[in-house]
């Protein structure tokens, strides 16, 4: 890990703000986005992407960086700038490769990997096979049909906010109420998927 | 079903004991129905995450971006010459034009940031993307028609309402833009740009109470750290 003094004051501020959480985290996300936005010119110049594609790669980069910082996966082995640049380069390579060869995701880690990686090998392979049979587009559709509050609750949890923080942000009485509500929302989603799943079982 | 889901959630949120975790992992390999439930849980979390990322991408488009620093190496004299010219222009502008008003600043913001919408990387050819394409080629009539239809469909309503408001904002139909941004404000979004956009529309309409109302909205944007809070902070000093 590099010493904290090696970060610029701006990087330190962003890192502290993202780790602190709460409603103010969003402003630090925007600050991070603005700080390294000039990298998009690199995507155009070095990786021959269009401006739109480079901007998309950059947005995805910032989302990954935020996620890694919030979930404690950013270990501080490099400056925030170098870390962001490395992820951005990987995403540009992926995108360039996708455009030129129609092959995707060399570097991009699938969102499922983090969670499914918690399972041991034998359990993981069984569950992975079943996941492949799931219908993603239906899930996305039904996520829009479980009610806006439920949807926001699930999004905030997935964004790394604790139940306590969500309670404050969405005006729930306690963290326990958030936890119960969140699980009810997952139940609602499951119930909507039930007819589809029964066809496969 | 519910208890099973709680059990699965406990595993993936790390609240089970070591022995309980081991039993959970064993059950995944011996109980097909249970493994199916785990698969659903993981698929759902993944779909939620995709949705979250889509929202974040959208919220980033509302963030003002400073012009990128140039990396070209230039001789010192060219910097000096540029600085002198810029200084003269700035002085001239300051003397003859005065400081730009908030209305001018907001008009510049609309011109610089809200006349092109970002299409998502894996956007495909859905209706929302067709609307965005129409918007970007300034076919506002078609864009309004598409976003108007989509704004009544629950799943795509937040984006469609926002874009419909931006169509009206760009065509000078400020009353209609404000109606759409009021609809957007009512939605419990992760990072709602509605208050900031409504403030923009009010500043452009410049009616009798509009400036005061815009100020209140900008204060809300600043205090709640909503999208546009940097501009809000800057403009509040001038309003």
TrEMBL record, chain A:
Keywords: DNA-binding, Sigma factor, Transcription, Transcription regulation. The lineage of its organism: Bacteria, Pseudomonadati, Bacteroidota, Chitinophagia, Chitinophagales. Belongs to the sigma-70 factor family. ECF subfamily. It comes from the Bacteria. The keyword Nuclease does not apply. This is RNA polymerase sigma factor. GO terms for molecular function: DNA binding; sigma factor activity. One of its GO terms (biological process) is DNA-templated transcription initiation.
């Amino acid at each position: 890990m590099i010493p904290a003094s090696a970060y610029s004051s701006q990087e330190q501020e962003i890192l502290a703000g993202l780790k602190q959480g709460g409603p103010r985290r969003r402003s630090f996300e925007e600050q991070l986005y603005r700080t390294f936005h000039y990298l998009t010119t690199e995507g155009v110049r070095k990786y021959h992407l269009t401006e739109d594609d480079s901007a998309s790669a950059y947005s995805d980069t910032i989302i990954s960086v935020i996620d890694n910082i919030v979930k404690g996966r950013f270990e501080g082995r490099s400056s925030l700038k170098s870390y962001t640049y490395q992820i951005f380069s990987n995403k540009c390579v992926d995108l360039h490769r996708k455009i030129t060869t129609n092959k995707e995701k060399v570097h991009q880690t699938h969102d499922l990997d983090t969670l499914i990686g918690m399972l041991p090998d034998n359990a993981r392979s069984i569950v992975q096979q079943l996941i492949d049979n799931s219908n993603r587009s239906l899930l996305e559709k039904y996520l829009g049909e479980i009610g806006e509050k439920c949807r926001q609750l699930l999004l905030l949890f997935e964004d790394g906010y604790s139940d306590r923080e969500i309670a404050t942000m969405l005006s729930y009485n306690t963290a326990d109420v958030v936890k119960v509500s969140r699980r009810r929302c997952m139940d609602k989603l499951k119930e909507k998927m039930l007819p589809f799943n029964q066809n496969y079982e | 079903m519910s208890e099973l889901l709680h059990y699965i959630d406990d595993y993936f949120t790390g609240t089970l004991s070591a022995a309980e975790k081991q039993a959970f992992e064993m059950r995944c390999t011996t109980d097909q129905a249970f493994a199916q439930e785990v698969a659903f849980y993981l698929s759902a979390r993944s779909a939620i995450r995709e949705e979250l990322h889509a929202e974040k991408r959208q919220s980033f488009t509302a963030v003002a971006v400073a012009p990128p620093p140039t990396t070209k190496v230039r001789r010192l004299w060219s910097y000096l010459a540029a600085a002198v010219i810029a200084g003269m222009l700035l002085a001239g502008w300051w003397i003859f034009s005065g400081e730009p008003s908030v209305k001018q600043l907001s008009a510049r913001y609309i011109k610089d940031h809200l006349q092109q919408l970002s299409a998502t990387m894996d956007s495909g050819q859905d209706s929302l993307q067709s609307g965005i394409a129409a918007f970007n080629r300034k076919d506002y009539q078609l864009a309004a028609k598409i976003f108007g239809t989509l704004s009544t469909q629950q799943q795509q309503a937040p984006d469609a309402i926002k874009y419909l408001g931006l169509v009206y904002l760009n065509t000078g139909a400020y009353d209609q833009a404000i109606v759409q941004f009021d609809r957007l404000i009512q939605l419990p979004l992760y990072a709602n740009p509605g208050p900031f956009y409504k403030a923009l529309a009010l500043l452009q309409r410049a009616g009798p109470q509009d400036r005061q109302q815009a100020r209140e909205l900008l204060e809300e944007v600043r205090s709640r750290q909503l999208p546009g809070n940097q501009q809000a902070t800057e403009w509040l000093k001038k309003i």
